[in-house]
Sequence to fold (138 residues):
Amino acid sequence: MKKFSIFTVLVLFLFTGLNAFSETLPLQSKPVAPAYAEPDECIKLYEIPFEKLYYLSLSAINANGFKPLEMQSRSGYILFETANQELLLSVMKKDAKHSFVKIAPANNIYKFSKTIPEKIYHYIDANKEKEITDMKFN
Fold:
């Protein structure tokens, strides 16, 4: 009876594909390193005038749910917070038709997600053809 039980268990392992006497270890997933933004990914040139690019950048920050902390339209900077980290978005004028957007951490440590600049650039790219109009309130 004992032999029959052992034989049955061995046959059961054989047919179910279980490795009863295997020396291999189970596969373990390797930890994925977070994708941080590189400094060269945080600056982009647009063929958009300075003022329009500034307002599009401000709209992008708002549309992505980031918290604007401070802004100054004359110098073209917007300080905003995301995931408990302060970032500075600067809009810089190159000439009458071209402007830059630069995103930099306030503490100058580039350990923030690369999706933050991607989201802002995507919003600007999607809306750069739209006309900016003044809102009138009663």
About this structure: The mean pLDDT is 85. The two ends are 94 Å apart (CA to CA).
